[in-house]
Amino acid sequence: MSIQSILTEAREWRRLRIDPAWSAVAVIFVVLALVVPQQAASSAVFTAKAVWGVLPFFVLSIALAAYAKATGAENLIARAFSGRPELMVLFASLMGALSPFCSCGVIPIVAALLASGVPLAPVMAFWLASPLMDPSMFAITTGVLGLPFAVAKTVAAIAIGLLGGFGVLALQRSGALTGSPLQEGVGNGGCAGSKIRNPKDVVWRYWQEPARRETFWAGARGNALFLGKWLIVAFALESLMVAYVPGDLIAGVAGDGGFVSILSATLVGIPSYLNGNAALPLVAGLMDKGMAPGAAMAFLVGGGVTSIPAALAVWGVAKRQVFAAYLAFAILGALLSGIAFQLVAG
């Protein structure tokens, strides 16, 4: 079964389920209204103010994502994978930090690249950098956590891509990670594969073509709904965190910015990180409660690459030694990013 058919089945299954984000919002406020009505009102006001506060960045984020879709900017990805391996690693890391793919959405692209014969080193660089940052997420991160944090996370994304890419080159030159990196029977990425094999020109002035204009507005509507509902969930949860989580608890566990707290945040991010946009307000709440900047960075970076859905997707398409390398570089990169950011910001 190809990776494209797996993702198609997953999307069909999701359509049959109740939307988890809106369900979570309903459950939170219904329970609060029944148990602590005063907190229900406080949480509603907190959520509304928080959404209003990030609204300009929200609109910018939606516009950037829709523009990338309408122009076909994803076709630029294939151009990063040509030349010497070292240059490919560099360009793949940069392209990964600019590409609009989440940790699971990047899998078909990766499968297509590897099936097309692109070396593992630059693919690993792109693989690791892509889920961590893109122009849309940069805008939201700036609105929620501030411009310095957004810039630092972008630098971390590129650095982790470089770490993984050059790390794979070193392992291959020592005799490790030889042979095909894909599992037997994995397809070539479906429609993603066609974009890699036959990239089309990017149409920056998309508004001159009616079909691309419709793509822009359809993308804007879809992204606004998706991003908006998860931000509402996250801000509602942040309101509860502010109300009920003792500040000294967070400060005591992850507030000193030491190695143990940053390592703990890195490892905790693996099972608990579910959505890149929803994680931002929660981390903002944790930082307000005393979480160290380095621990916050480690949580976002480690969780963004190694969350359980992403890890399962990698496990399904890559051979075990490649999966182990992916996981090791992601965890090491998150840990180093947290330590470096703590030294700068602490």
Helical segment count? 17
Extract low-pLDDT stretches: none
Topology pattern, helix = H, strand = E: HHHHHHHHHHHHHHHHH
Give the total of beta strands.
0
Helix content: over 70%
> Per the principal axes of the C-alpha atoms, what is the gross shape?
globular
Largest sheet: none
The portion of residues forming beta strands comes to under 5%
State mean pLDDT (0 to 100 scale).
Answer: 81
Structural class: mainly alpha
Structure notes:
This protein is 76% helix and 0% strand. It starts with a helix and ends with a helix. Helix 14 runs antiparallel to helix 15. It is built from 17 helices and no strands. The longest helix has 35 residues. It has 346 residues and is mostly helical.
What's the gist of this structure?
The chain is mainly α.
Helices and strands, with pairings:
Elements: H1 3-16, H2 20-35, H3 37-53, H4 55-71, H5 85-98, H6 106-115, H7 120-129, H8 135-145, H9 147-173, H10 191-197, H11 210-244, H12 247-254, H13 259-272, H14 276-288, H15 293-306, H16 308-317, H17 320-345
Helix pairs in contact: 2-3, 2-11, 3-11, 4-8, 4-11, 5-7, 5-9, 6-7, 6-10, 7-9, 8-9, 8-14, 9-17, 11-14, 13-15, 13-17, 14-15, 15-17
